[in-house]
Write a structure and sequence with these properties.
Layout (H helix, E strand, L loop, with lengths): L4 E9 L7 H14 L4 E5 L7 H5 L6 E3 L2 E3 L1 E2 L5 E3 L16 H13 L5 E8 L6 H9 L4 E6 L3 H16 L4 E6 L4 E2 L6 E2 L7 H8 L3 E4 L4 H8 L24
Parallel strand pairs: 1-7, 1-8, 2-6, 2-7, 8-9, 9-12
Antiparallel strand pairs: 3-4, 5-6, 10-11
């Protein structure tokens, strides 16, 4: 059996739920895959997994020679999520922290990832047990922090930033999700949550803004159909060089 060879691990986190980490993780993976890289996604949001739904994957997880086999998307992205092992996808995960952490380590160590250029880790919200386990136990190259324009979210994002810095995790930059809405009649940008402060926050923290992602009804339709890979992604994340700056 082929040994795992994962060249770079990118965490996607925020410190708060509801900012679209899973969607951004998926779009990042698709962007890298479209550029010819071998990509995987580890859904570490054990209590709220959603990655499989975005890709329309329903198959149950299988084990071969004591290794978990990831599900593979249409584009060839390898994905592992706890939903692969639930009888019903809406069954709740009622586990304490240590068990959650053990499952995550299995998803990294006991999965037949094979050769990957990038493994994207969709992190759970918060700065507690699971995030600490991921940061301490996996050779993460850096984290992309997701935010939205609301002041409250930005405050919580700073907490996640400070946690990452204290644990010596490199911060690639910020992505502001739901940054604005483009009017389909006049093409004007509408700031749904007020004026963005992302450039000010990035400057204050000394990091870059990777992108500002608009609210897009078309994207929502692709997500609802489990067909996120068909979303036209050409004009998103064109500032990914900082994520890819280390030679593979």
């Amino acid at each position: 059996m082929m040994k795992n060879s994962i060249k770079k691990i990118i965490a996607v986190g925020s410190g708060k739920g509801g900012v679209g980490k899973s969607v951004i993780s998926s779009l990042l993976a698709i962007k890298l895959r479209n550029e010819g890289y071998k990509v995987g996604i580890l859904d570490s949001d054990i209590t709220g997994p959603s990655i499989l739904n975005l890709f329309g994957l329903k198959s149950q997880g299988q084990v071969k020679e004591e290794k978990i086999l990831p599900l593979v998307s249409k584009l060839g992205i390898k994905i592992v999520s706890v939903n692969m092992f639930l009888e019903n996808e809406d069954d709740p995960i009622i586990w304490r922290g240590p068990l959650l952490s053990n499952v995550l380590m299995q998803f990294y160590n006991d999965v037949q990832w094979g050769e990957l250029d990038y493994l994207i880790i969709d992190m759970p919200p918060g700065t507690s047990d699971i995030a600490i386990t991921l940061y301490q136990s996996l050779p993460i190259n850096g984290v992309v922090i997701i935010t939205t324009p609301q002041d409250l979210v930005n405050m919580i994002v700073k907490k996640f930033y400070n946690m990452s810095k204290k644990m010596n995790i490199k911060i690639f930059g910020l992505i502001e999700n739901m940054s604005y809405l483009v009017c389909d009649k006049c093409n004007n940008k509408i700031n749904l949550f007020g004026k963005s402060k992302i450039n000010y926050i990035a400057k204050k923290l000394g990091i870059i803004v990777i992108d500002k992602v608009a609210v897009d009804i078309k994207l929502t339709k692709f997500i609802n159909n489990g067909n996120i890979e068909n979303y036209p992604i050409k004009n998103i994340f064109n500032n990914l060089e900082i994520v890819k700056e280390e030679n593979l």
